[in-house]
Amino acid sequence: MITANKAQHCETMAEVRSHIDALDERITALLVERTGYMTQAARIKQDASKVHDQERIEFIAARVRRMAAEQGGQPEVVEAAYRALMDASIAFERREFARLRQGETV
């Protein structure tokens, strides 16, 4: 398990912003990688109705809440961020699903 809440003590807003900017670089790289898996999911799934999987959404939401709590974080914040991420990911996957099947006849 990853131990979180490694936030360093800061004396100025410039320090806070510097740390946030560094984290944003790492988070962005991870989100780009995660989005790559959405493209693969769109390729693998054979039915557009499978793009939105409410059971999987709730599983992920509960999982990240639990992980946040275990790591001393704010479960509500993490869940809200993940729900927004999942909504955007589903919209992207729908577009990818359609793009990958352009010109196919049913």
From TrEMBL:
SMART domains: CM_2. InterPro entries: Chorismate_II_sf (IPR036263), Chorismate_mutase-related (IPR051331), CM_dom_sf (IPR036979), CM_II_prokaryot (IPR002701). The lineage of its organism: Bacteria, Pseudomonadati, Pseudomonadota, Betaproteobacteria, Burkholderiales. The keyword Amino-acid biosynthesis does not apply. This is chorismate mutase. The keyword Isomerase applies. It comes from the Bacteria. It is an enzyme of class 5 (isomerase). Its EC number is 5.4.99.5. It comes from Rhodoferax mekongensis. Keywords: Isomerase. Residues 7-97 form the Chorismate mutase domain.
